[in-house]
Amino acid sequence: CYRESILKTAKALVEDTKLLVSGAASSQDKLAQAAQSSANTITQLAEVVKLGAASLGSDDPETQVVLINAIKDVAKALSDLIGATKGAASKPADDPSMYQLKGAAKVMVTNVTSLLKTVKAVEDEATRGTRALEATIEYIKQELTVFQSNEVPENTSSPEESIRMTKGITMATAKAVAAGNSCRQEDVIATANLSRKAVADMLTACKQASYHPDVSPEVRDRALRFGTECTLGYLELLEHVLLV
Q: Which Gene Ontology cellular component terms are annotated (predicted)?
């Protein structure tokens, strides 16, 4: 019963996205209006998605998590888009910030589309696991893009913390293999949710550790390379589970 409300609000958010992108080339007032409108719309969308998740009942918490993760991705993409819009404001069309803005807008639309696909899949128990896995794969790819960027993390952590976070990957891998063997929807959904967190935590810890003051540039490059290789390997595993 919440599907139509989610669809309607998501469409409004896509329109807000267009206004944000065009607002970068217009006045500060128009840009501020577009930002405020999108903030109001994402709040409405989050509320209706939460109501939709609650309507599933407490006996299906993993699917509730899938829905909540989907709206979190949209909210994060919107925040990044607003940041990119501010950076591109009043800049010429060939400025690098304009390309960053277009990239942020693309991610935004991708995540809104992913949310709508997830909402649709929730109504069909036979496709819930597949959709959850597809959404996780897309999320991990986006996290890997951030990891591979030149952006320096705000905080650093110890190599020990990075090592500790790899344990989550080991657990998630075992769960993914088990889900591939059982092919039960609930196992696949649980794998999707666990994988999402395990890989994101590993990438964050790896990047923070690689920028620790005691780490040499050579070791940093190796750590970042292995973080990428680990993620690509895990993505390949999830693609196999999806195929099965």
A: cytoplasm; focal adhesion; plasma membrane
